[in-house]
Design goal:
By secondary structure, the protein is α+β, with helices and mostly antiparallel strands. It has 16 helices and 11 strands. The longest helix has 18 residues. Keywords: Signal.
Length: 441
C-alpha cells in the first residue's frame, strides 16, 4: 500500500474529518511584487516543491490550418531551451532532480514543476528558459511531429479511440471542441518553428496565468521564484473563448463499421457545469449510476447480472463551454444492443425511482473519502489547488466540501436525474459490427 507523506496524510484527514479536526491546512493567497497571484500550501516535512500552473487557451483555439500546433508546442517546450538542446536540457533536469512538463487540454495550456527544495533555483531557472526561450529545433520538431502522426494512425485503428473521437465530432459538430486535440496530418505538416514561436507569444501571457504551489518554500521565496520564471512573460489579450455550445435536442445513434468481434459503445448527455448549485447532487447520482465502479448500478446490471460486458462506467466532464455525462461499455457484437437497452433502462429507473437511502449513504461516504485518497503527493495537492482556481472555487471550499456532499438528499438526486438523464438528448456511438443497433441521423 502506498504510504502517504505527512502533508498528504494531513490533507486526507482534513478532507474526511473537517469540521471536527482541531487543525486546518493553511492555503495562502499571495501576490508577487510583479502582481502575479498564486496559492501556496507550505510544507516543511518533505524537501520538495511542486508547482501546477496553466494559461488560457488550449487546443480548441488552434489557428486555422494548424490543427495540433498547441499540443505539439506543449511537448516541445522541454525539448531544448536557451543555450541547451534537448539532450542537454534533459541532463540539466536530471542533475537538478527536477521534473518539468507541459500539456494542452481543450481550454488551457498546463504545466507542472517538481524539484528538490535544495535545487529550486535550478528548477525555476529551467522553467523560465522553457517558457521564454524554447528552441523548437527542426530535428526535435520533426521527431515530435512523426510521433504525433504515428499516434494518430494508431488511434484510428483502436475502436475505443474511434468511438471517443466520433462522439466529440458528433456532439460538437461545427464547434471547436469537435477537433482532435492531437491535430490532423495536414495541420501538423504546416507547423514550423516560426509558427510555434508565434503560438507561444499568443498563449504564454502573464495575465492569464493560474498557479499553485505546495512544499518546502515560504511566501517570499515563492513570490521571488514566480516573478523570476513568469515575470518576464508579456501581458496581452488571451485567445477568445470558443462560442457557447448548443446541446442536442434529439436522440442520435452513429454506427462506425469495424471488423472486430466486440463493439465499443459510448453514450453522452448534456452534463452540468461545475458551478451549478446541483453539482454535488449530480456527483452523487453519477457515482450510483456508473461512476462507483463495481458498486454502481450499471456494473451490477450490465456485467454482474447479465454478463454483457467486462466493464461499464459513467463520468462527468466539464469544459469551459460545455459539460457532459458520458457512459461507456464494450460488448460482443451480438449483445451490444442488449447492453445499450439495459443502460437506457437504468437511466429511466434512476429518473423515475431515484436512489435508495443505502445507496445515497454509501455514495456520500465514498465521495467524501475518495478525494483525500487521491492526494498522495505534493504534486497531486498542487494540482487540486490549481483546478480549484480554474473552477472558480475559494480556498475554503475544501473545508465545506464534506458538508456539501452530506447535504445531498434523496429528492436532490432524483431531481438532477430527471434533469440530466433524458433520452431525447442522448447521443450514442457504436464502433464495431453491432447486431440490432440502428443508426439514427
Amino acid at each position: 500500500m502506498k504510504r502517504l507523506r505527512p502533508l498528504a496524510a494531513a490533507f486526507a484527514a482534513w478532507l474526511v474529518l473537517v469540521p471536527g479536526m482541531a487543525f486546518a491546512i493553511d492555503i495562502k493567497q499571495i501576490t508577487t511584487p510583479l502582481g502575479i497571484k498564486a496559492w501556496l500550501v507550505e510544507d516543511k516535512s518533505t524537501p520538495v516543491v511542486a508547482l501546477s500552473f496553466s494559461f488560457s487557451g488550449g487546443t480548441a483555439t488552434d489557428p486555422a490550418g494548424q490543427a495540433g500546433i498547441t499540443e505539439l508546442m506543449a511537448g516541445l517546450l522541454t525539448d531544448g531551451a536557451g543555450p541547451m538542446d534537448a539532450q542537454a536540457f534533459r541532463q540539466r533536469q536530471e542533475s537538478a532532480a527536477a521534473s518539468l512538463g507541459f500539456n494542452a487540454s481543450l481550454d488551457r495550456l498546463t504545466g507542472s514543476l517538481r524539484v528538490l527544495s535544495a535545487s529550486r533555483d535550478e528548477g525555476f531557472e529551467l522553467l523560465r528558459l522553457a517558457l521564454t526561450e524554447p528552441r523548437f529545433d527542426p530535428d526535435m520538431l520533426n521527431q515530435r511531429r512523426a510521433q504525433t502522426l504515428a499516434s494518430l494512425n494508431q488511434a484510428a485503428q483502436r475502436p475505443g479511440s474511434v468511438a471517443s473521437r466520433t462522439l466529440m465530432q458528433t456532439l460538437f459538430a461545427g464547434h471547436p471542441y469537435a477537433a482532435d486535440p492531437d491535430g490532423t496530418p495536414q495541420g501538423l505538416a504546416a507547423v514550423t518553428p516560426e509558427l510555434l514561436k508565434k503560438r507561444v507569444a499568443e498563449l504564454l501571457l502573464r495575465n492569464s496565468l493560474v498557479v499553485a504551489a505546495v512544499g518546502d518554500i515560504g511566501e517570499a521565496e515563492l513570490a521571488r521564484q514566480i516573478d523570476r520564471s513568469f515575470g518576464v512573460l508579456p501581458t496581452g489579450t488571451p485567445p477568445a473563448l470558443p462560442p457557447e455550445w448548443v446541446p442536442p435536442t434529439k436522440p442520435r445513434t452513429v454506427v462506425v463499421e469495424r471488423p472486430v468481434p466486440q463493439s465499443t459503445a459510448v453514450m453522452a448527455l448534456p452534463g452540468i457545469p461545475r458551478d451549478d448549485p446541483e453539482w454535488y447532487a449530480a456527483l452523487v447520482m453519477n457515482h450510483i449510476l456508473g461512476g462507483g465502479g463495481q458498486q454502481s448500478r450499471l456494473f451490477n446490471e450490465v456485467r454482474e447480472k447479465r454478463g454483457l460486458a467486462y466493464s461499464v462506467s459513467s463520468g462527468l466532464r466539464t469544459y469551459k463551454r460545455a459539460a457532459l455525462l458520458v457512459m461507456s461499455t464494450g460488448s460482443a457484437n451480438e449483445r451490444v444492443a442488449e447492453a445499450l437497452k439495459v443502460i437506457r433502462a437504468e437511466m429511466a429507473r434512476m429518473r423515475t425511482d431515484g436512489v435508495t437511502e443505502a445507496e445515497l449513504n454509501d455514495a456520500k461516504t465514498y465521495l467524501t473519502g475518495a478525494l483525500a485518497l487521491s492526494l498522495d503527493s505534493s504534486g497531486s495537492i498542487a494540482g487540486l489547488l490549481h483546478s480549484m482556481q480554474i473552477d472558480g472555487l475559494s480556498p475554503d471550499h475544501l473545508t465545506r466540501r464534506a458538508s456539501l456532499i452530506a447535504a445531498v438528499k434523496l429528492a436532490d438526486v432524483r431531481k438532477v436525474a430527471q434533469r440530466l438523464l433524458r433520452d431525447e438528448t442522448l447521443t450514442t456511438v457504436v464502433v464495431g459490427k453491432p447486431v440490432g443497433v440502428t443508426p439514427e441521423p
